[in-house]
Each structure stands twice: as structure tokens, then as C-alpha cells.
Specification:
The two termini are about 20 Å apart. The chain has a single domain, classed as Histidine kinase-like ATPase, C-terminal domain (Heat Shock Protein 90, 2-Layer Sandwich), CATH 3.30.565. The protein is built from one helix and four strands. With about 80 residues, it is of the alpha+beta class.
Length: about 80
């Protein structure tokens, strides 16, 4: 976790999220895990949206997933 000029990010060192799937991860029911529910990131996306923020998916410096939340009033 770290700060951005207009928000913050959370990242990991896992296998990352392929570029072609980065928008889908916030869809309710989407999961790359056959045993997954697809609720986790859908809930995160709803929370971010309800605050008027924006969330984007990128690759972390370690090659894992990085979620950047912007539009946050950090004052």
C-alpha cells in the first residue's frame, strides 16, 4: 500500500492480472478461480464508485496486481 497524488494504491507480488482481464475483474460473478465467487473485487468496485473515486488495475513493480484508487480527497 502506498500513496498517490490524488489517492492510494494496493499491490501484491502474485501472478498479476492479464491486461485483457483488468476491466472484467470488477464484474459481479467474475473470477479466474473455478472455486471463486466473483464477489470480492465487485464489492471493492462498488465501494470505490459510491465514494466518487476511480479504480484502475495495473501491474506492480514486482509483477503482481496493483489497484490504484484516485479522486480521493487526502486533505
Amino acid at each position: 500500500m502506498g500513496t498517490l497524488s490524488a489517492g492510494f494504491y494496493v499491490e501484491d507480488t502474485g501472478s498479476g492480472i492479464p491486461a485483457g482481464e483488468r476491466e472484467q475483474v470488477f464484474d459481479l460473478g467474475y473470477s479466474s478461480d473455478p472455486d471463486g465467487t466473483g464477489f470480492g473485487l465487485a464489492i471493492v468496485g462498488e465501494i470505490v464508485e459510491s465514494h466518487g473515486w476511480t479504480i484502475t488495475v495495473a501491474e506492480s513493480n514486482e509483477g503482481g496486481a496493483r489497484f490504484e484508487i484516485t479522486g480521493v480527497d487526502t486533505a
